[in-house]
């Protein structure tokens, strides 16, 4: 199973992506985050390994591309 984390500040878009992921065999959504800080919390505290992140790069108050430079 491929575990997917969805990071999007638009709740409707996040929900649409969650529903889409749920329909794909072998994929499951293991969480959603509306901020980059919440995403970091999920990633570093999750018991489930995250294999794939769907990331909104144009967030209202944050730049999703900056998240890709986050040190481990």
From TrEMBL:
A Pfam family assignment: Response_reg
Key words, A-Z: Phosphoprotein
InterPro entries xrefs: 2C-system_Tx_regulators, CheY-like_superfamily, Sig_transdc_resp-reg_receiver
GO molecular function, one term: phosphorelay response regulator activity
PTM annotation (4-aspartylphosphate): residues: 56
Domain Response regulatory: 3-72
Key word Repeat present: no
Highest taxon, organism lineage: Bacteria
Coiled-coil spans in chain: none
The protein's name in its UniProt record: Two-component response regulator
Native organism taxonomy: Bacteria, Pseudomonadati, Pseudomonadota, Gammaproteobacteria, Enterobacterales
């Amino acid at each position: 199973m491929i575990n997917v984390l969805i990071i999007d500040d638009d709740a409707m878009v996040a929900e649409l992506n969650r529903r889409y992921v749920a329909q794909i065999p072998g994929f499951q959504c293991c969480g959603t985050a509306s901020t980059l800080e919440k995403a970091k919390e999920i990633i570093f505290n999750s018991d489930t390994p995250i294999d794939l992140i769907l990331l909104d790069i144009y967030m209202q108050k944050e730049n999703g591309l900056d998240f890709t430079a986050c040190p481990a």
